[in-house]
Amino acid sequence: MKKELNKNYSEVMEFILLGFRTSPDVQILLFSLFLLIYMVIVVGNISMLVVIKINSRLHTPMYFFLRNLSYLDLCYSSVIAPKTLATFLSKDKRISYNGCATQFFFFALFVGTEGFLLAVMAYGRFSAICSPFLYAVRMSQQACVRLCSIASYICGCINSMIQTGFTFSLRFCGENRLDHFFCDVPALIKISCVDTLVNELVLFILSALIIITTTTVILVSYTCILSTVLKIPSAHGRSRTFSTCSSHITVVSLFYGTVFFMYAQPGAISSPEKNKIIAVFYTLIIPMLNPLIYSLRNREVKNSVKRIFLRKKSFH
């Protein structure tokens, strides 16, 4: 139990992001590495958005969801990366209280939305493979927009408002050093000067609820898909059908694995260094890998990229 708030506390108006506490030389090395990763994220995800936009063959439900996935990856990495890069080179590692709350709100919004979107994408694959005759109805343009806006963005926004409201209702008395490279719940809970049991329970229950709900949709969808695929007589047909899901399965495994280890364990608050390493993975590495996974393992995307380059060469 943390000590109770006394009458002489001084309200915290800003936080100091301690980030990675290393030597100046290592800080420069980390800055270069993070900058390179962020550039790959920006180029990769914008390229996916452009390729899907300009190629009419990719104007299908699957690529509508993939376009939103690229948008979310670009957004939540951009909420974190610029400030992190600035703190590597600057001695001023401060972030205002409102700036911290804003950063966390948008980060939780985009990450939460991505979790729900991955479940929606699994449902889309289920509809395409298990109910192909109903696919046009279930995955019409209006249905896709509703699934994306209501099931993903609105649920992500509700999650973000709850997390932000509970976290920033805490008192921070004097201690304002966050042992992290961005404003995240575990680091904020750790420096609060009041009892945080309720906040830790909310973090655990909300994260577990989202993970259980979305992974149930994903697991049920892929159980039905596997059952349908196994009924296909030819090995080539089974391989070709299931290959359309391989990219999504890889992305889901990376995303949910890291989120589970970060938030859905009762001891998630206790290890700042472990949290930082895991946070780098899901704030930067996963948004970098997602467009590579979908482009390298997707024949239609690869062919679209080739056609764009060939078209450019023909103009020259």
Automatic annotation (TrEMBL):
One Pfam family matching this protein: 7tm_4
Residues making up the signal peptide according to the UniProt record: none
A single cellular component GO annotation: membrane
Membrane topology: Multi-pass membrane protein
Tree of life domain: Eukaryota
Parts of the chain that traverse the membrane: 28-52, 64-81, 101-123, 143-162, 201-230, 242-265, 277-296
SUPFAM superfamilies in UniProt: Family A G protein-coupled receptor-like
Record carries keyword Transmembrane helix: yes
Domain G-protein coupled receptors family 1 profile, first and last residues per copy: 44-294
Cell compartment(s), UniProt: Membrane
Gene Ontology molecular function: any one: G protein-coupled receptor activity
UniProt keywords, alphabetically: G-protein coupled receptor, Membrane, Receptor, Transducer, Transmembrane, Transmembrane helix
Free-text function comment from the UniProt entry: Putative odorant or sperm cell receptor.
Name listed for the protein in its UniProt record: G-protein coupled receptors family 1 profile domain-containing protein
Organism: Muntiacus muntjak (Barking deer)
